[in-house]
Structure formats: C-alpha cells, structure tokens
Amino acid sequence: MNELTESDYDILHAMENIVDGIAAMWGEHTEVLLHSLDANNPSIIKIANGHITGREVGAPITNIALVKLNEGKDVSDAYITKSPDGKTLRSLTTIIRNKENKAIGMLCVNSNLDAPFQSMMQSLLPNIHSHFDFGVTSETFARNSDEMMYSSIENVREQVVNDSSIPPSKKSREIVTRLHELGIFDLKDSAQIAAKGLDISIHTIYRYLREIRAHEA
C-alpha cells in the first residue's frame, strides 16, 4: 500500500454513491463498503448497511481484504465468510485503481445468507409506485433508440387504452403526456415515431406538446 494523493481520494469519494446504489438495489441484508488503501490509514471511508458486521466509517481493513488485495485479481471470485456475530456472508471484493494502475481502494459487498427468506425477498421487491400494474415498472432493454421508443410508446399506449377512467377523447393526449414525462420527446425523430405508432398526425403531437410545456412553464 502507498500513501494516497488528493487525486486518489477524489476517485474514491466519487464512488461513494455507488455504495449507496448497490445497497439500495440489494436491500438491507447486503452490506456495501468502500475501503481506502492509504498506507497511513487503510480503513472504511463509506459503508451502507453496516449493521450486518457492526462496522462504521473508520473501521480498519480486514485480514481477508488484504488477502484479496494480494491475489492479483481486480474482481475476486465470490467467497464465504463469517461476521463477528456468526452470520454467514457471501462476499465479493473489487480493487479500485488510479490512472497509474495503483490499487487505491476496495469496493466490498457482503450479503447475509442467514437472513430470513421472506425478509430478503421483501427487500428485493420494494413497493414501487408507477403507472404500471402491480407496482412493477416495465423496463425496456432495447438494442437501439428506435426500438426503445417503439417499445415505450406501445407500453404507454396499452396502459392508457386499458384505463377506463380516461375518456376516449383524451387518450391520445394522455399518451403524449406520459411519453413527455418519460423524456421520449427529447430523442431525435421521436415525434415522427410516436405519430406513426399512435396513428395520429405529427401536428397533433406538436400541439399537445406545446400545450403541455406551456402548462409547465
């Protein structure tokens, strides 16, 4: 390990939101932490769900983390460890390097395998509020932007068409409103693609968009 520079710490601090993001993705039974590999103080500088191992910011690097650092892999294989109170953890460690390719930090993920199954599933399936049925957001994994737009337009169209609370005369405007909220009309050629997909004129779409944007102003 070496003494870290200000630039090294800038890299590490820029990754702190990644810790929060992974923890939010996997829920309360997964601990995520960021280790500094500063020779003067190799310790945790960011941690989420630290209740799993009882650690906080400032806790020292572990012996296993040091082993993973010296294995020569920037992304370790998953491995099994035990928390201080006996929890079985499935862990993975990723080495963070600076532009000189020196190891400056470690991103560690520890999932509690002893957590009750029902509690684990509840943390993985949060109550997501959206326009979509059953609280589940339909994400489009498209291969290009046109495919993404067509898929998004069809998803929104189907929602609105099947919503009996929206009068038939207002369905087209509601579809355009929802597509606007999704940011679809920020994309190139989106109005033309929407007009074709919704079977309405492009002039109608532009009129709806002018009205929506005027209302937002």
From TrEMBL:
Q: What is this protein called?
A: YheO-like PAS domain protein
* Species whose genome carries this gene: Photobacterium angustum
Recorded hits in PANTHER family, A to Z, give: TRANSCRIPTIONAL REGULATOR DAUR
Q: What Pfam families does the entry give?
A: HTH_22, PAS_6
Q: Where is the Transcriptional regulator DauR-like HTH domain?
A: 153-210
Where do the YheO-like domain residues begin and end?
12-118
